Amino acid sequence: MKRRDFLRLSALGLVALPTSWYFAGRAFSASHKLPRRIKSVIVLYMTGGPSQLELFDYKPELIRMHGKTKSGFRTEQNETEGVLMRPIAEFAQRGQSGQWVSDLLPNLANLADELTFIKSVNCTSNNHALGQLDFNTGSTLMGNPFSGSWLNQALGDKPAELPSTVIMADPLGYPRTAPFLWNSGGLSSTVAQLVCKRPADLTNLWGESPSLSMPEMERFLGLARRNASLGGQAADAPLLEARLRALRMSQSTREIFSQLLAQQSSEEEKKLYGLDVELCKNFGQQLLMARKLVEKEVPFVQVFCGNEDDPTSWDHHEDIKQIIEMSRKIDRPIYGLLTDLKRRGLLDSTVILWGGEFGRMPVIQPDFAHPNGRGHNEHVNTIWLAGGGFRKGFSYGETDELSLRTVKDRVEMGDIWATIANQLGIDHHEMRYLEHGVEKRFTKKYHRVMHEILA
After folding, report:
1. CA distances for 229 relative to 217, 225, 233, angstroms
2. What is the pLDDT of residues 436-447, one digit of tens each?
3. What is the pLDDT of residues 263-315, one digit of tens each?
4. Which residues are within 8 A (CB) of 409 and not within 5 positions of it... i.e. 6 or more apart?
5. Which of 215, 244, 275, 388 could serve as 270's disulfide partner, Cβ 3.0–4.6 Å?
6. Is the dihedral of CA 288, 292, 297, 299 positive or negative?
7. End-to-end distance of the chain based on CA atoms, in angstroms?
8. Residue 327: helix, strand or coil by DSSP?
9. CB distance 47 to 308 below 8 Å
10. CA 315, CA 135: separation in Å to the nearest integer?
């Protein structure tokens, strides 16, 4: 060895070793450093950007100024003024906490005392694709791990028969940024996940049986390891190990999902989740499966509602009245999920996160034949959380009198994910790794745990 190479390896190598370990994909696991208060996370993602003005952010001044022209802002179409439009729904203060919820969600309104509203969420972009990526991956760039991969990686490998992440898309279609919304990036080798549209699809994900049986795979794996111990090539061993793990999981998962689907829902349960209403049926079945999965301690479940085509998404540019049907689609199923989790003693150990990529504008979007819709507003977004140690019946952050901009307690999605990670016992600053010399992070350095919204 040359003297220069020796010095480089001995000096710089000593620095590189701990650094590479620190940033390795498996390097962060903070579950042993912070108390873990919850076991599971359920994300209810409303594709398209639901209108906070029609659902949760009550603005009497907007009602008073309906029809007047407002200027001094810029829309996604670069308009600098517009005609103000009042919400199409009536609002009332609900429960003992007096939280404002509109008449579009009559069942969920009965659980206002269980919800934690954050009305001052600011988004990175008013573009659907970028907003969806930022909400779900912490970055507007494609190819980064999504929230389920980050959180499960930090928790460590889960020695269970079920995957650590289950994602259910809307049967009507996938979001336009799929599959980047559930991409595992550099963490793909350590996080097991399933993606489907309907719960019944989970029993048919693997198609026909693999060409090799499990005993045959185990025998070939033993031969590969023996070959490696004798100085031969071991290239086949990792591949065989991965295939064997996948086969074991697929068989056990298929069996468990078949059992879960075979469980007959009672009439009371069907009514609770809205399975007796055609509009609510698919979403209700997905949320019922979500409850069954967290009962099995699956750490991360995400359900997407809405595809990218009006009126079956939450992107109501042309006619805001389309939100009425979308609200009916989710109202009873979400009420059923929260009620079911609570009565089974699972709500305290589960966090439910509801939201979309951004909010909507208080002015009418004019570029339609019969304009009656709202454009994108990245400066204002309302999300809510339930369970998991969050303050019940609480509202955080404020928007201006028209819900045009945030005026108090500005929040980013990174702050919300940092707080959820904290409830899982994870220090969000440790969720990072090095990939091709670039540091990957789920949250930014300046994001923080929002202790104000924790019980």
Report:
1. 18, 6, 9
2. 888 899 999 999
3. 888 899 999 999 999 999 999 999 999 999 999 999 999 999 998 877 889 99
4. 120, 396, 397, 398, 452
5. 275
6. negative
7. 61
8. helix
9. yes
10. 16
